[in-house]
Amino acid sequence: MRNFIQILALIFLSGCITQFTPETEEEKELLVVEGLITDQPGPYSIKLSKSMPFGKKSEASPLSRCLVRISDNEENIYWLTETDPGTYLSDPVAFRGYAGRSYKLYIDVSNGDRTLHYESNPMEMTPVPPVDSVYYEKTVIKEDFENFGGIDGCQIYLDTHDPDNKCKYFRWDFDETWVLRLLWPVKNIKCYVSDTSKVINIKSTAAFSESRIFRQPVAFISNTTDRLSREYSISVNQYSLSEDEYVYWEKIQNLSDQTGGLYDIIPSSVPSNIFCIENPDEKVLGYFSVSAKSFKRAFIKDDFAGLLNQYPDCPSDTVYGDVEIWGLDVSVWVLADYPPGSWGFGSPRIRILTEKRGCADCTTRGTTQKPPYWIGD
Questions:
Q1: 8: Cβ–Cβ under 8 A, 6 or more apart, which residues?
Q2: Which of 36, 82, 289, 352 is deepest in the core (most CB within 10 A)?
Q3: Number of H helices and number of E strands within the chain?
Q4: Residue 347's closest CA among 321, 317, 319?
């Protein structure tokens, strides 16, 4: 009887549990600004949106019909045009950034019967040195022993230095491309797949007598992807930062380590360099970045042990003879088509099918068009 009463009490208490939502001083919607201008050819992009309420992932809604412009310290003004909802692009012919100049961002947002004006702090573009080298080293994830093969990974590094000792705060990202070749004799068998980095990579040399960086980790590639199966290329972009922007990225980096995603939850406690003229206490998310940029590309074509097969269990059915295949190129695709006699005298036509389009068409992940920078076949 006593146990029965305890069980009833637990059921009653569990039914009284309600979700707790903490009280915060954060506004339900905040202006989010993502923008970067460099000394490389444009166009440059400014993305504007409204954040979701506190505690939700930042699937922000684009902010359209704003007036966006950038000025420099030589009194030039450059207007940006909205090309997609919330995306504003500069004119690449009229505007290009220059190291040594300062830039300000201006945003006019219509809010019902009034217009709110936002400005950034003036941001100087610090010169950035070239990337000296980008290179890789094989790393052993698992050693070869007895009847089990080894597993290799690939760690990519860079070296750089500033002989003028002007650039002391750095940020890096990268663009990567690799060759994907499918295992079956299909039409679209070879593609070039591309991706971009999704982590924050920064470093300061302010505490040292010279601005020199050696063996800075850029990316690690494990055996669980197909990046290393054929040919791989990485273009590393190096940006100069001001001290304030370095602090901004450092805080975002710390938060992304805690939340598990770069922009999963961005609290307004991270300072921005953008403010509202009418209400300076209003919090703005994001940053107007002004950075000189250099880059260097490297290619990797090597043998790595233990790469996983990314296309297991592709075949799902086999069809014999010239029969109609229901759902062809819609829900099923042909992996291989063998004409009559291929398997011996009198053998019928044989088609091997798959229900996974990616097994039969590499364009589900990439393009058959070879990039202009690609070396080799």
A1: none
A2: 289
A3: 3, 23
A4: 321
**In angstroms, rounded to a whole number, what is the distance separating the alpha carbons of residues 136 and 154?**
7
DSSP state of 224: T
What one-character-per-residue DSSP string does 10-76 give?
HHHHHHT--------S--SS-EEEEEEE-SSS---EEEEEEPPPTTS---PEE--S-EEEEEETTS-
In the chain, what is the straight-line distance between the N-terminal and C-terminal CA atoms, in Å?
79
Which tokens go with 54? 């506190």
pLDDT of residue 29: 82
pLDDT computed for residue 193 by the predictor:
98
Q: Which tens digit of pLDDT belongs to each residue from 81-131?
A: 999 999 999 999 999 999 999 999 999 999 778 999 999 999 999 999 999
Query: Nearest Cα to 85, choosing from 54, 60, 52?
Result: 60
Contact status, residue 334 vs residue 314, Cβ threshold 8 Å? no
Q: What's the CA gap between 173 and 199, in Å, rounded?
A: 8
The DSSP bridge pattern shows strands 31-37 and 284-290 to be: parallel
Give me the count of residues in the chain.
Answer: 377
Query: Contact, 355 vs 334, CB < 8 A?
Result: no
Identity of the amino acid at 157: Y
Interacting residues of 163 by C-beta distance below 8 A, sequence separation 6+: 129
> Which is it for strands 151-162 and 123-124: parallel, antiparallel or unpaired?
unpaired
Distance, CA of 369 to CA of 190 (rounded, Å): 10
* Residue 20 pLDDT: 38
List, for the chain, all residue ranges whose pLDDT scores fall below the cut of 70.
Answer: 1-28, 52-59, 146-147, 257-269
Six token digits for residue 324 = 């109609």
Write the single-letter amino acid at 174: F
Q: How far apart are CA 90 and CA 68, in angstroms?
A: 9
Stated as kind and residue range, the H or E segment containing 72 is: strand 67-72
pTM greater than 0.90 (yes/no): no
Distance of alpha carbon 51 from alpha carbon 275, whole angstroms: 16
pLDDT averaged over the chain? 88
